[in-house]
Amino acid sequence: SGINAEYGHSPGSQTMIHFLMTSIPEIVLLLLMWSIGVLMFGPLIYFVERQSPAVNATAERTVSSTGTFSSAFSGMWFCVVTIGTVGYGDMVPQTEYGKSWRPCTPSST
Question: Which of 4, 34, 64, 95 is a plausible cystine mate for 52, CB 3.0–4.6 Å?
Fold first, then answer.
């Protein structure tokens, strides 16, 4: 039936294609909510960590050496990984304020 039969897709593939095509509005909404969470909490965790005296006291502020957030984009990466999975552990908040905001990140979506 339709374009799926013309290209010889199996019944399972046809079901999956039908499911994906009918779920496009929900998928778009999911991606929109995920983006809002990342854009809100990424810079927030960066600024919370940056304002801490423990982070400002370090001479080197790179992600690899201290585990802190070097930019708002690294905070966004932290949010993407935390919302999408359980986190890699490559970046974690080091301050008490950052640790208190960490549970808000996955629950934002």
Answer: 95
